[in-house]
Amino acid sequence: METLSYWIGMAGTVAFAVTAVLALAPRGIDLFGACVMGIITAIGGGTVRDLILDVPVFWAADLNYIWVAFGASVAAFSAHSLFTRKEIYSLMVYIDGFGVAMFGIQAVDKVWGLEFGLPIAPIILGIVTAIGGGLIRDVLAGRQTLLMSRELYATPVMLGCTLYVVLLYILPEYRFISAVGCCLCIFGIRAAAIHWQLSVPEWLTTKTKTA
Amino acid sequence: METLSYWIGMAGTVAFAVTAVLALAPRGIDLFGACVMGIITAIGGGTVRDLILDVPVFWAADLNYIWVAFGASVAAFSAHSLFTRKEIYSLMVYIDGFGVAMFGIQAVDKVWGLEFGLPIAPIILGIVTAIGGGLIRDVLAGRQTLLMSRELYATPVMLGCTLYVVLLYILPEYRFISAVGCCLCIFGIRAAAIHWQLSVPEWLTTKTKTA
Amino acid sequence: METLSYWIGMAGTVAFAVTAVLALAPRGIDLFGACVMGIITAIGGGTVRDLILDVPVFWAADLNYIWVAFGASVAAFSAHSLFTRKEIYSLMVYIDGFGVAMFGIQAVDKVWGLEFGLPIAPIILGIVTAIGGGLIRDVLAGRQTLLMSRELYATPVMLGCTLYVVLLYILPEYRFISAVGCCLCIFGIRAAAIHWQLSVPEWLTTKTKTA
Prior knowledge:
The structure is a homotrimer of 211-residue chains. With 211 residues, the first copy, chain A, is mainly α. Chain A has one domain. The first copy, chain A, has helices spanning 2-24, 31-53, 58-61, 64-78, 80-83, 86-113, 120-141, 154-170, 175-196, 207-210. The longest helix of chain A has 28 residues, at 86-113. In chain A, 52% of the residues are buried. Chains in contact: A-B, A-C, B-C. Chains B and C meet through helix 7, helix 8 and helix 10 of B and helix 2, helix 4 and helix 7 of C.
């Protein structure tokens, strides 16, 4: 199981870096910028989490995260036309969604294990880990961040991480199966949002109130 | 006194979260985004300060800061029309001003107690604590940050924190009364700026030089 | 040599703060904003590096970095017309280029000495140290960051830091001379880019692919 989760993590890292480079390519970016943005997107969220937890940053102990993000960024930059092919791009968006789900739940698990600020800090740091890298990328690129859009991207992470914390409290003996379930739950909502292009319902936004 | 300062801190936290949500609401934001932005605005500055000091983040030891910011964000989002009523909104702006003053001075006190980078680091980290959360919020929301505006928001914090450090040097035995005085001094300037809509005088800006 | 490198570091700090203030002045900035932006630009990159390394921030042990950045910001703000004179401004741009080169190589050296995440973390943190302050400044000012431009600013830093790590591996006994050489190498490319207004070649950007 450890190995499986490790490989899924690497696939998520690839997807984070690739979707970052593809999102920025139309604005014109050089090879160096592509690598920096790809790496920041892939490891930024976990880095902020580890700084707040005051533990060594996760990629210092396992540089594969950097190498994989670097390689994926170079590949996405070089083989741009390959990755923008409809099937490949779709695959990347779904893997990205799975990466978000898994990194969020893994972070909750890590923070829970450290007994840091229970019960709410695990949820907050789960969200930070899942979407922090993308936020830093958008800020550095001058793009609108997803916090200001109605895309269903961060909300499922929040729901899944909250559910996982609740399950850790009431069913501590089912830690592993809860983690898998919550991860699939986040991914399920995200995949549905991608497939049917769902967005946050209007009554949960301020648009209607002000318009 | 401890208790009083604690409750004022909580009131400041409420005001930070509420003013953040109200500022972003016209742009359209969903419930999740409102909570994230409210919490970041309320605890962002202190978090950056604690990372630089290399001490545990303040909210890990007292999660009430998170809960209060979360509750205030949900309230501001739900009861939007209540909080935009003139009297309530004015009250929030003044409490926000008081929160800025108090968080700044409290941070100077904390950094001074740790004897970290005296004498200038307490002033810098006081400013970071007071306005850091708002800066992160504006960057994530794609708004112009207050550093580029002429609003009298951060300058009084700088003056008050500097004055407090000077007083700590020359009158160390009056630490508490100095803190209260400097806090009121910051709030006084800020309140005057809100009431009479004062801004930084033109000769202290570069506008005239370039126009 | 220590003393020389220290003074060059201070000159770099001055140049970072001055170029920051001059870059933001046309947008209108007050004295407080100028100081904050100047200081952040000068020490921001090294601060992020030290947070990730989990070592005390470098300026806490030597506050001269803050004082010098503060003084340079005030000077650039007050004597704006002096610093925008062609010769002075050119000099500042070249010193800025030298500062970027030296701070990058010094950071590689520091991270290497701590044996942190070899071999790739030194390169990443060298880049972070050299350009991080400027990135934070641009984000806070709402300007396009250099990651999205084709200016030859960060790419030479990456090349020089990579070269230095390679030389540390194959010629560990020539550590000092390698550092000087790589620093000059970065500065040489940067100076050529300034003088002949070179930019990243088109085949290394995505512009042609999408246009």
